[in-house]
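Running this now, will post back.
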Amino acid sequence: MPALYASIFSVVMPLILFMAIGAMARRFHFIDQQADKSFTKVLVNVFYPALLFSVISDNDALREGNNLWLPPLFGFGSIIIGYLISYLIGKKIVYPKNENSIQLRTFTFNTGVYNYGYFAIPIAFAIFSKETAGLIAVFNLGVEIAFWSVGMMILTGKNNLRALINTPCIAIILAIIFNITEIEKQVPLFIYDTHIPSIIKETLKALALCTIPSALIAVGALIYDNMRRFPLKAFWKVITFSNAIRLVIFPLIGIGLAALLPINRELKQVLIIQCTMPCATIPLVLTRQYGGDATVSFLILVGTTLAGMAIIPLWISLGISIID
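Update: finished.
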């Protein structure tokens, strides 16, 4: 267990350091706020889809029928359960006198969704396999559907189903088709003895390598913008109960399901990783964009991420020991 904990901790720490680099880059004006919007578009529409495509393609585990419909179902369900638990605790404990407030909607929207991509995928690669990382990408199709439909409805109070048609979802679907059909082997397209589909695949892999550092550096810059407004005393309930939901309640649920359900080993590993992740980073961007409480969002993100540095390796180690 100690060796496994140390191994997982060594994977988590660079992710935190990327965010610290982003904060320092903002501090010294290497990244200005004018670049945030365009940089986010590149991340969401270029780098992240390339990462999803890379982990799904050439993945034998994703050629099994159950691995194509069951993971998205679990992904969708995990977000719905997260929102439900977050709303109930937020309504009864965190904001008992403000049941319809923007703060409660922000708390629910941010606490209910975990860091399903930028943390989960590199951790899966490092401690498990490409098969597990690919399964996470398919699992994330359900997460994306729940996040952009139910999640955005919670934040804005409006139905925004058009947001479901987005580049990451399209990339996941195309990658599944390419993986099943192995179409690159069926297309004899060569230029000067160079196989063009292979070049495209290698280009996507190169873009995928940029995803995690770029995304977390961007998040670190956003965190720096909010660091001067860090009212811990006024928001102690937000910090305490977001951590309780994300880093205590959800890991217990995820590890329990992984231990009890008759599912394959890779999906058990996915459940353990996803349910132990801190809160996601994209809700902070969307909270600011759609008029939510940015301070609440910021405190949830930073609080669960910092606490997760110590707790996430412990939960994953425990989960692995239980399913082994």
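The CA atoms of residues 112 and 272 lie 17 Å apart. More later if anyone needs it.
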